[in-house]
Design goal:
The complex is a heterodimer of chains A (about 280) and B (about 750). Chain A is built from 11 helices and 14 strands. By secondary structure, chain A is α+β, with helices and mostly antiparallel strands. The longest helix of chain A is centred in the C-terminal third of the chain and has 24 residues. Among the domains of chain B are: about 190 residues, Aldehyde oxidase/xanthine dehydrogenase, a/b hammerhead (Aldehyde Oxidoreductase, domain 3, Alpha-Beta Complex); about 325 residues, Aldehyde oxidase/xanthine dehydrogenase, molybdopterin binding domain (Aldehyde Oxidoreductase, domain 4, 2-Layer Sandwich), CATH 3.30.365.10. The longest helix of chain B has 21 residues. Classes of the chains: A alpha+beta (about 280), B alpha+beta (about 750).
């Protein structure tokens, strides 16, 4: 196994194309444990952290651009970003521990392909886009379209995520991400729920509800969104959100949580995230 | 006076700055690396093993197999385990050494220039196995015609150890009862999860002794077991304890000691004298050492209208796993503690240790007490609820007092303080005041900012734990003290304390120096400890059974007296050696269980307050009141450390730790999936209430405290959850899935 540390996107693109079996990484917080647990070693480990474009965050022309390899701790400590997207910041803030967050990145969290990735549901709720570099240049797709199943990506060989774009939200918009873990920290979500709502007075005018860890990928819940839009998040609407989210959950049974538990709590967390997002939208 | 004070630990600075020498840190230059190879078979007979390819791996120096063990059997209390499973063993062994009875039976030790080479060598060992039928739980083990895990013991059952208590007439007792509860309780495994996995270094010292530097709990016993397998007199083996990252009973049995000892002995014979280092990874540690016993306890408990207990029946089945380790002794403690610290006129108790082809059960803080107390204390809480009696009142009504017979029909050792402890705990916990309304769980993200789904409750439990070894074991502890000074000095200027007692992180060595200081009149700074080296210290007994302060203290008091005698006679330096033996205990009668099992007990009570999120099943513990009669707190800060540490460890046992087995294999041998509590999970507040009712035999009146705060935690917690939700849980851990599942089932 070799290690390479390109300083430009082009250089990384060439390395990836020229070396079958190579793999890009940012913080290596998933790659190293995977190798230790017996997954085949890549031919070349390509470190993306020396490429400036992947390590920066900018805000102009009505949208944010976030480098795919930037440590999530730089995002969660970015006061301006966190005030605009508290839900995305919360999700990023639940990855591993403080030490892990000095290495972990949005790009890595997404491209590891885990359905339980904490930063992904809120990105989808804000309709974030992924800018992908490949042998033929760059293309931009919704974050929701990157992961196709556990550990499975829509990216072709030789492609990697360079950065994310997120548009400024409309006025009176708030988002939230909450999750359930058997342990309160340093654990992997058994249910995650991100909600983003836009409020006009007491009425919700737009909503996105996204669940994590209860299906092969993060999933949007259109029925829950429909229940929120036009409502004042009254008891009836929240009961519909709860039922819709539970209905949309299609989880696995594993050591951390049973199917019954995940289905039930998906509804509970979707409701709680909706209430929290609405509080933020009104603030 | 040093006793009763809390001076700074002498090892605090070095532990804080990292300079202290742990057995895993002190790898001598040029040391060889050893990897212990596990069978990876839950139950199988070895047909063939070839090390030829492994020996050809570059860097591999040698491979130790069963053929290298002069005596191929060992065990702390029964020699039912092969040192190395193998087909070509020639050493004496009562056990069939060709059979692997759990996944971590050791089959070889690969010694190489590097750990990587040793690991590659281990992978190159070729073994042929014939699989034998799995016996992977106690139901399978007890089924008619179940395969026998240890046919060599001549029994026709896997239930190889059976204890009985027959007291009074249980049928009559239950006929007197106004209410009877009859419940089955299931208790899970628990992993010790010490900070430091097993690590050690072996070499031949300058006096030709096979020497092992390691962390452990009982130097002399380690030496005895290693010497037995090596076929050496004990004085040809030396055990030295380095600093240790926790033990909790998990380092009382052998792990890598015998492998290292065999390797050092055989390599020296072949002319290779470099030291040999072995260090287990976390996965190797979790797979490779024993666990707290899982088991099942059926209990029937009856009481009159006013809450007076009339009869008890209990069946205690513990899964001993593949080998006995200390299961027979753990079972004895569960057997006695399942009756609680109560007057019970009529009782039948049957307790069995059962072999299975899974990870062995063994010593772990509480040693059978947590299992027994979970059953009896849950039963008492349930019976009190059924009778409409306050659980504290129920306990006071039945608690043992001085002069009472215990469940084994012999008088309790003097100093029974159960009632005082229960009363003190109930007052400290302010049980007469209603719980305030729940507060939001913030900042835990999974929990709500609204409080509509939150329910509060509190629960109570009490109990006792023996101090020292039980059931007729020849309990002893040795100390030597040397007083230094000039011929004309009236009092010594300094003292040397030689003691084998193991420091396992609890601060025992400081407590010993404090007691030596008071015993000799030498100031604490001038008492120098020389600890835990079989070449310089005697037999201390184990750092277990909450016994070390009590036993070491008495040995130190005796040695100080001897040394002072010599001092007065003019010896300079003046030496004193003392072997303390407490009053003898008795094995229980095999038919009736009659006998005096213990010479001293500590008594404890706990009250736990919880908030339960009934929408997610998440439990937060808001407050723990942990009350302990320690006799005398030799060092109050260390006592509080034991209480808080045990509470946190018990919290993991009760709430989140869930060791999972499939077909005899542990499937979550890592901390990402075996969840010990994090800082955000532990109780928000622990009130440590230290009571000092002097024990008549204890040094300065001291009893012990190490295990007690663990033992009553789970039944107090489940009672609190019942108070909050109306649900009784007869098994745990109370993970969110289990709690929510229980709530949903109750709704349907």
């Amino acid at each position: 196994m070799e290690y390479a540390a390109p300083t430009t996107v082009d250089e990384a693109r060439t390395l990836l194309a020229d070396n079958p079996g190579s793999r890009v990484f940012a913080g290596a917080t998933d790659v190293v444990p995977q190798m230790r647990s017996g997954r085949p070693e890549p031919s070349v480990l390509i470190d993306l952290k020396l490429i400036d474009r992947l390590m920066s965050v900018t805000h102009d022309n009505g949208h944010w651009t976030i480098g795919a390899a930037m440590p999530t701790s730089e995002l969660t400590s970015n006061g301006e970003f966190t005030s605009v997207f508290p839900g995305i910041s919360e999700g990023a803030g639940w990855i591993g521990s403080d030490q892990i967050q000095n290495r972990s990145s949005l790009g890595g969290n997404l491209c590891n392909g885990s359905p339980a990735a904490d930063s992904v549901p809120a990105m989808i709720a804000s309709e974030a886009r992924a800018v992908i570099a490949g042998t033929d240049g760059e293309r931009t797709i919704p974050v929701a379209d990157v992961v196709t199943g556990p550990g499975q990506l829509s990216l072709a060989d030789g492609e990697f995520v360079v950065e994310f774009e997120i548009d400024d939200p409309p006025a009176n918009t708030g988002d939230a991400y909450i999750r359930m873990t058997p342990r309160t920290e340093m654990d992997i979500a058994i249910v995650g729920a991100a909600v983003r709502v836009t409020m006009n007075g007491d009425t919700c005018t737009d909503a996105r509800v996204v669940l994590g860890a209860v299906a092969p990928t993060a999933v949007r819940v259109p029925d829950a969104e429909a229940a929120l839009i036009g409502s004042s998040l009254d008891e009836a609407a929240l009961a519909e959100v709860t039922a819709a989210a539970s209905a949309a959950a299609n989880p696995i049974n594993d050591k951390r949580g049973t199917i019954e538990y995940r289905v039930q709590v998906a509804g509970v967390l979707a409701k709680r995230a909706a209430v929290l997002a609405a509080e933020r939208a009104r603030a | 006076m040093s006793v009763g004070q809390s001076p700074l630990r002498h090892d605090a600075a070095a532990k804080t700055d990292g300079s202290i020498e742990y057995a895993g840190d002190t790898v001598p230059a040029g040391a060889l690396q050893a990897v212990v190879v596990f069978s990876g078979r839950a139950h199988a007979r070895m047909l063939l093993m070839s090390t030829d390819s492994a020996l050809a791996v570059p860097g591999v120096v040698d491979i130790i197999t069963a053929a290298d063990a002069p005596v191929n059997e060992y065990g702390l209390t029964m020699r039912d385990q092969p040192a190395l499973v193998g087909v070509d063993h020639t050493g004496a062994a009562a056990v069939d050494a060709a059979v692997s009875r759990w996944e971590a039976d050791q089959i070889a030790v690969v010694i190489a220039e590097t750990r990587a080479a040793a690991t590659a060598g281990a992978a190159a060992i070729e073994v042929e196995w014939e699989d034998l039928p799995l016996v992977d739980n106690i139901d399978a083990a007890l089924a008619p015609k179940a395969p026998l895990v240890h046919p060599e013991n001549g029994l026709d059952t896997n239930a190889y150890h059976h204890l009985r208590i027959r007291k009074g007439d249980p049928d009559f007792g239950f006929a007197l009862a106004y209410a009877v509860i009859d419940e089955v309780y299931e208790v899970p495994h628990q992993e010790h999860a010490y900070l430091q996995p097993e690590a050690g270094t072996a070499y031949i010292d300058n006096e030709g002794r096979v020497t092992i530097e390691i962390g452990g709990q009982w130097t002399s016993e380690d030496r005895e077991q290693v010497a037995h397998v090596l076929g050496l007199p004990e004085d040809r083996v030396r055990i030295i304890y380095k600093a240790i990252g926790g033990a909790f009973g998990g380092k009382e049995d052998m792990s890598i000691q015998i492998a290292l000892g065999l390797a050092a002995m055989r390599l020296a014979e072949r002319g290779e004298h470099r030291p040999i280092h072995c260090r287990w990874s976390r996965e190797e540690s979790i797979v490779g050492h024993h666990k707290r016993h899982r088991g099942r306890i059926r209990i029937r408990l009856g009481a009159t209208h006013d809450g007076t207990i009339t009869a008890l029946e209990a069946d205690v089945d513990l899964d001993a796993g593949a080998y006995n380790y200390t299961s027979n002794k753990v079972l004895g403690n569960a057997h006695v503690s399942v009756a609680g610290a109560y007057r019970i006129p009529h009782a039948r108790i049957d307790s069995r240790a059962i072999y299975t082809t899974t990870v062995p059960g063994g010593a772990f803080r509480g040693f059978g007490g947590p299992q027994g107390h979970f059953a009896i204390e849950s039963a008492v809480n349930r019976l009190a609820a059924e009778l409409g009696i306050d659980p504290v009142e129920m306990r006071l009504r039945n608690a043992l007092v001085d002069g009472d017979d215990g469940i084994t029909q012999t008088v309790m050792p003097e100093g029974v303080s159960m009632r005082e402890v229960i009363t003190a705990c109930s007052l400290q916990a302010e049980l007469d005041e209603a719980l305030p309304d729940p507060e939001p769980f913030s900042p835990i993200a999974s929990l709500p900012s609204a409080t509509t789904s939150l329910r509060r409750g509190r629960g109570f439990a009490a109990g006792f734990k023996n101090i020292g070894f039980s059931f007729g074991f020849p309990e002893r502890c040795e100390a030597e003290i040397v007083l230094n000074g000039n011929p004309n000095d009236e009092t010594p200027t300094s003292a040397e304390l030689f003691h084998g007692g193991a420091e396992v992180g609890q601060g025992a060595h400081l407590a010993m120096r404090q007691m030596a200081s008071d015993a000799t009149g030498v100031s604490l700074d001038d008492v120098h400890g020389h600890f835990s080296d079989t070449a310089t210290s005697g037999d201390p007994g184990s750092a277990s059974a909450s016994r070390l302060t009590f036993m070491a203290g008495n040995s130190i008091l005796g040695a100080a007296e001897e040394a002072e005698k010599a001092w007065r006679e003019g010896d300079r330096p003046a030496r004193g050696f003392f072997r303390y033996t407490p009053p003898p205990t008795e094995a229980l009668d095999p038919e009736t269980g009659t006998g005096a099992p213990n010479f001293c007990y500590g008594y404890m009570a706990q009250c736990i307050e919880v908030t339960v999120d009934v929408d997610t099943g998440h439990i937060r513990v808001d407050r723990v009141t942990s009350t302990h009669d320690v006799g005398k707190a030799i060092n109050p800060a260390l006592v509080r450390g034991q209480i808080e540490g045990a509470v946190v460890q018990a919290h993991g046992y009760a709430i989140s730790e869930d060791l999972q087995l499939a077909d005899g294999f542990i499937t979550n041998p890592r901390f990402s999936s075996y969840l010990i509590p994090g800082i955000g999970d532990i109780p928000l507040q622990v009130d440590s209430q230290i009571l000092e009712f002097a024990d008549p035999l204890g040094p300065f009146g001291a009893r012990g405290v190490a295990e007690m705060p663990f033992i009553t935690y789970t039944p107090a917690l489940t009672a609190a959850v019942h108070d909050a939700t109306g649900l009784w849980f007869n098994t745990f851990p109370l993970t969110p899935s289990r709690v929510l599942g229980g709530l949903q089932a109750a709704e349907e």
